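RECORD TYPE: protein structure
NAME: Type III-B CRISPR module RAMP protein Cmr6
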Amino acid sequence: NEHPLENGLAFLDPYGIPYLPGSGVKGSVRRAAEELALFESDSHGWAIPTVWWLFGFDENSAYFAKRKESEAGTIGEERQRWQEAYRTRLTSLSDQDALLFKEFCAMLTALKLPREKIERALTQNSERSVIRQLHVKGALHFFDVVPYCADGLKVDIMNPHYGHYYQKNQVPGDWGDPVPIFFLTLPAGTTFNFFVGFQPPITWPQAIRSHFLEKVDGEPRWKRLVVEALTFAWEWQGFGAKTSIGYGRFLLADGKKEAQPGPFANGDRYNQEQQGVVNSKLAPVAARLARGGPFSRQDVESVANEISKNYRAEEAAALAKQLWELVKDSEFFARLLKANPIFKDLLRKGGISV
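PREDICTED:
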């Protein structure tokens, strides 16, 4: 996803729109589930065996990473904290979670390893040679998350002060000349719809499948667990870059922990109220076209992009046709407009063959 402006956002190729890759979302939610299982007094139903069943087994999880002698300070202490929490929680599982653990180890015997050896390696966090052989696919599928942002991208700034102090070991002071770094962001209030699917492997025992499909407060257990992990990730971890300064934090719509229909749920991108907003956004475009030429390249690109962005508005095709008639004699502008697939489609709807 390389992009000349990709310094905080990933852009979906070949469309050029910002998005959160499903793989990254899955990793963040898995980490949230592990933290709930190991460190929170109220785990909201999460335990390490549950993480393995739903996300798959990962030998590189933080609680499996041994502390190296060369690691001192915060990093070494953090590794040790995860390992101690893992041993403590895994040896004090509830009856239900203990059963999930035993069933998980029993399923792994298909790898031609003795069950007792697997249980000992996992319980004592020992025998790395055994742990490295454990490969199990999870049941959750995380889809790419594309934002719905009516106002487009915004530009923020990072102003690195005291570069002469940090990089050149000079005396710090206010006489430095910081070079501002601009980066793209999504504005506050941008809507994201997270989609997660549940498709357990065929090797799952029927008892485990039934356990996660069992209704809890009217919803399947797996869904309740995912919502709790997502909520924890939204509030405490964040997604994407610069989460330490507040980016990537989310709030549930209306504060409800339940699935909400997305903007495309009824087959139409905008409801009647939203359609009115879109139409009003094209009013400046109509006014600009009414003034006629001359048009600069910036004018043509700006007007064409605004029409394309609101392509579902009733007057979009008519405005596209009007712009085309005004600039079609310029070979450069004609090529520019025909290179925009959405605008080109609007021209066809307006009766223009290009």
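COMMENT: The longest strand covers residues 154-158.
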